[in-house]
Every structure is written in structure tokens, then in C-alpha cells.
Amino acid sequence: MKFTDYCREKAGWMFCFLGQMLLVIGMGKIFRINTSYIVSVVFLECFILLLMWAFDFRKKYKFYQDMLQKLDELDKKYLITEMIEKPGFLEGDILCDALYETDRSMNEKVSGQERAVREFKDYVEMWIHEIKLPISAVSLMNHNEEMDFRSYRQQLDKISQLVEQILYYVRADTPQKDYLMKRCCLEEIINEVLLEHKDVLITGKFTIQKKDTGVFVVSDAKWIKFMLGQLIHNSVKYKRGASGYLGFQAVEEDGSVTLIVEDHGIGVPASDVRRVFEKSFTGENGRKTAASTGMGLYICRKMCGKLGHEIWMEAAEGEWTKVMIRFGKDGYYLE
């Protein structure tokens, strides 16, 4: 900060002051006031004004020079608000408050990005450990030259499901680039998903029931198929007994359609029902029965939010689990 720059900023005030002094001198002449008295008043006002500007310049000069010097010495420039003191004048206080809010916002953004990277890293590590199991099983089958084609296809289906899960996890952050909203038939989507996962369902001796599923909803068929695939794999993973049950029912209401996906597996403890859609939450079932990333239902909830749907769960431990997805029936999304 240079004194010439400071004077240039005060140029408007200087012209106003000169105009005021000329007005004082003119009024003094009109009213025939003693010239020496007028000169004394003008001199005194000039001295006081210059003294005020000098004091103001010194205070601002000290603050801005100190701030620029510390800013130049810092590697992490955004820490400048931690290094400077309150200046004690209005413009400086406003600047410090603005810098503080900018710094706080940037720190929150950086912390959020670091947390997201850390969570993704943890998820990838869990995902790698889980996908190694079916890969090892397939490798062992090939090594022993004992080919059980049903088990072989089951392991390949699990690998495909895990790869699809991480792919959709990455896509979930920018779904607007990867979805197309249109009217689609739930019956057709359910049939396609069941056909894709027929091997694990046959191996698990699942009984499939559908009721009133021939309705149309407004959504993205590809994302619905992914979500239903996650629910099917959960039903297979947490099956109870030698055989399983999987039911699909659509309930129409005035402005929506609710798809209910029900299984008669080990259920979910009441303490876990509200948390099953949280990121990386595995709950008691995930710790007891099988390795789990805890990401499938989280991705489902995230995508339902992006697509304008609702998803929730009801369960009775040791008896059944129901996952409900509510779709809108109107054409808002089509527009």
C-alpha cells in the first residue's frame, strides 16, 4: 500500500474539502470577517484533516503490509485468517470477515472431499476382499478340473454383481448424465432381473411370487433393475433354511405406485432397520452371516433420491423383510 495510492483514493474528499474552504473564505469576505481569523480557521481545519488522514493511513498501511507479508510467507494461503489480527477499522473488519467465511467454506469443501475419498478408499478395500472370494472359487474349480456349471455360473453372477455395484456407486454422484426418465412396466423389469439372476435363485430354491406388477411407472429402467438386483442378492445372502421366498407386489395409490419386495429370510433386527440405508452399514446380519460392504442399500437410497422416488424398509427379525419403493405416476419427470 503506497501513500500515493491512498491520496488517489482520497482525491474526491480533497476536492470537496477545497470547495468547502473556498466557500468559507467567500462567506468570510461577504460578512467582512477578519482575514487573519479566516486564515486561522482554514489552516486549523487543514491541519486537523491532514492529521486524521495520516493516522488513518498509518493504521491501514500497517495492517495491509503485515497481511501481505504473512501471505507471501505462507505455503497454505488459506490460513491467512489465522495469522492476522483484527485491524480495528471498518473496511479491514469487513475484509477479515469475508476472508474468514471464504476460508471456512473452502475448509468444509476440502474436508468433504477428503472424507469422500477416504470412504471410497475404504469401500474399494472391502470390495476387493469380497470379490476375491468368487474369483478364488472359480480359480479353484479350474485348477481341480471339476466343473460344476451351476456353481460356476453362480460365482460369475456374484462377480458381475460386485462389479456392477462399484460401477453404479461411481455413477451415483452424477446420475443426470446416466439416466433417462420414461414410462416403464414393472412386470417387464422384474422379469428381466429374475432372468439375469436365475442361477442364484435356482440354487437357493427360491419361490417367486408376483402380484399386480403389470403397472407403469415413470423412472429409469436401468437403475430400477440395479436396485432390484441388489435386493435379490440380499435375499439370497440372508436366506433362512434350505429354500427361500421372494415376492413382488405393486400397490397403486392416487398419485403413486409402491413396489413391495418381500423375502422370508432371517429378517433385520429392529435396531438396524433405520440404519440399513447408511453408507457402509452392515449391521448384525452382515457381521454374522457373510462379508458385506454395506453399500448396496446405500446406493439404492441415493439413487431413489436422485430419481425422485422413496425407499424404506420394514422387517421382523427371523421372519421377513420388506423393502418398499414408491414411484410417481404423473409426467413431471418426462418434461
Q: If you had to describe this structure to a student in words, what would you say it looks like?
A:
The chain is of the alpha+beta class and 335 residues long. 61% of the residues lie in helices and 14% in strands. The protein is built from twelve helices and seven strands. It has helices at 3-9, 11-30, 35-73, 80-83, 90-144, 149-171, 186-196, 198-203, 221-237, 270-273, 283-288, 296-307; strands at 182-185, 206-211, 216-219, 244-252, 256-263, 310-316, 320-328. Strands 2-4-5-7-6 form a five-stranded mixed sheet.
Number of helices, counting only DSSP H or I runs of 4 residues or more: 12
H/E topology pattern: HHHHHHEHHEEHEEHHHEE
Averaged pLDDT: 82
Helix proportion: 55-70%
CA(first)-CA(last) distance: 56 Å
The major beta sheet can be summarized as: 5 strands, mixed
Give the CA-based shape.
elongated
Topology (elements, then pairings):
Elements: H1 3-9, H2 11-30, H3 35-73, H4 80-83, H5 90-144, H6 149-171, E1 182-185, H7 186-196, H8 198-203, E2 206-211, E3 216-219, H9 221-237, E4 244-252, E5 256-263, H10 270-273, H11 283-288, H12 296-307, E6 310-316, E7 320-328
Helix pairs in contact: 2-3, 5-6, 6-9, 7-9, 9-12
